[in-house]
């Protein structure tokens, strides 16, 4: 799947991923209203509204982008119905041949991590049959529990040709509270980065490993260092746009081959229709998905100009 | 909810929690067969089988125990149908007045952590209405992202009188890879423990905080230290039984008031019917839930004898 991701990035010339993190407040009123009329002001109604919202954005952007990253928390808040909408979103994005990065930040130990890996990336044996359930292509994973938590994911990645992105240096203001603390003269995130390189070394695609890392756009210096620590790992970079990261901050997340990083934007794309710059270009809540397309085009141009 | 947990522990005289982590291989054949006949060898069939398995164990043990801890990974591996079985399990345990600790190990940043907290512990606004969805009483949370990841959970805990257990020192063999590394002369887990005490200090129940910690039974020395670092935090202790922890290892996880810790056993209770010691006492796969009751009684006795 890392090979497919690389190919799609090269084909679209867009090292970006659209974060499908639909807060209900992002969903235009007319979509909410229609869904509530059909399913009531219920979790099923909310789930239908966010799925319709996602679908319109995917339809408007899928030819421009290689990948999407649904954030499962935004679905889980609506319970089982929300999780169904997550599944529908994953399935719909696959219909559109997009690579799907499940932003699930799972991580546990042994058989429990195995179960997460099975559910999100692999397949499960039920009696005499085998089923893939959530079937994302990549999942994000938390490293706090050490190798025991990561290895079961790596095993499933090898079997299924899927991939993971391990949290190394996250984009939030307080990420340094633990991640920046010095251990033997190096910050914790660097130690985690070294383990990412090690875990990834025995499951390589053509040029990059199945095991990638998450490093926030808001920490460009750390990104530069980690790029060197994990030369064969793709870096998933959140924090662009709404969280403050800019194209010029991103240069050092990439390798000399122009690859090695994929930049996420969520709110900046899916809620672009609320921004003055797109309202000024004729966008209303009715044609919100057109604003998402414009925002994708602007993001691609911003990153391209920074890289060249 | 921390007050209810304390009351129930005192009433049952059992500082234990039954881990409802049903691997399909733990579910006796006759239950699998019946569920598959009705729903097919499908995720729905598997989900039905694990719910029936859980229900029998809950029915057989609920008068002896204060709490259960369903591990959501074991449900997520069956996709949406599995998540439905998780919800049914939570709801059924609430019918039996058990405290439900959702072992979900979630953790993200800002609005994303808020969404997880909303889904698992809180309630979500949908149009003019408000819904609680998964509605566990406690959730486990991963600290790697720092305060930004924890505070949204704490906020929901305050509003809803719910609680969290933050991963501090996990029970697995490789937990030391990052957690034991020394920072300013102290291991990372101790720094995390200090933050747990800090985060918990402004949301206190009668005698313990809404903010607890996870510390593995397999690390008794670390448990002893962390007990002192976080005097007002309940410690959820996995790793008893099948993972190797024994009653005598647990003494120092408790405070002098005999409270402050709750010991989890999963496989040792829910798959007790496979152990020779219970087979020798007349257990078969047909009366598997009786073995779970025996295992709960044995665990309570083991811990009581260690504490006195």
UniProtKB/TrEMBL annotation, chains A, B:
Residues 15-282 form the Orotidine 5'-phosphate decarboxylase domain. Keywords: Decarboxylase, Lyase, Pyrimidine biosynthesis. Pfam families: OMPdecase. Pathway: Pyrimidine metabolism; UMP biosynthesis via de novo pathway; UMP from orotate: step 2/2. It catalyses: orotidine 5'-phosphate + H(+) = UMP + CO2. One of its GO terms (molecular function) is orotidine-5'-phosphate decarboxylase activity. One of its GO terms (biological process) is 'de novo' UMP biosynthetic process. HAMAP family: OMPdecase_type2. This is Orotidine 5'-phosphate decarboxylase. It comes from Agathobacter ruminis. The gene is pyrF.
């Amino acid at each position: 799947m890392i090979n497919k991701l690389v190919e799609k990035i090269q084909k679209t010339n867009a090292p970006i991923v659209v974060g499908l993190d639909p807060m209900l407040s992002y969903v235009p009123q007319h979509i909410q209203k229609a869904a509530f009329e059909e399913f009531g002001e219920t979790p099923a109604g909310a789930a239908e509204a966010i799925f319709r919202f996602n679908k319109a954005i995917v339809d408007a952007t899928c030819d421009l982008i290689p990948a999407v990253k649904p954030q499962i928390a935004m679905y889980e808040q609506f319970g089982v119905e929300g999780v169904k909408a997550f599944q529908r979103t994953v399935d719909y994005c696959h219909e559109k041949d997009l690579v799907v990065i499940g932003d699930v930040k799972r991580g546990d130990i042994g058989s429990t991590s195995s179960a997460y890996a099975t559910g999100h990336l692999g397949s499960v044996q039920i009696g005499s049959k085998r089923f893939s359930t959530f079937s994302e292509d990549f999942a994000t994973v938390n490293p706090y529990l050490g190798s025991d938590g990561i290895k079961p994911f790596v095993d499933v990645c090898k079997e299924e040709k899927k991939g993971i992105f391990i949290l190394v240096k996250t984009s939030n203001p307080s990420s340094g509270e633990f991640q920046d603390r010095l251990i033997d003269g190096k910050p914790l995130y660097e130690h985690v980065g070294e383990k990412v390189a090690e875990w990834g070394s025995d499951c390589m695609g053509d040029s990059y490993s199945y095991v990638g890392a998450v490093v926030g756009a808001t920490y460009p210096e750390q990104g530069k260092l980690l790029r060197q620590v994990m030369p064969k790992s793709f870096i998933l970079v959140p924090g662009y746009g709404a969280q403050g990261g800019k194209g010029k901050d991103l240069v050092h997340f990439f390798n000399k081959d122009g690859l090695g990083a994929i930049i996420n934007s969520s709110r900046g794309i899916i809620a672009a229709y609320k921004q003055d710059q797109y309202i000024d270009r004729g966008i209303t809540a009715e044609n919100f998905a057109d604003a998402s397309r414009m925002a994708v085009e602007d993001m691609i141009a911003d990153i391209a100009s920074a890289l060249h």
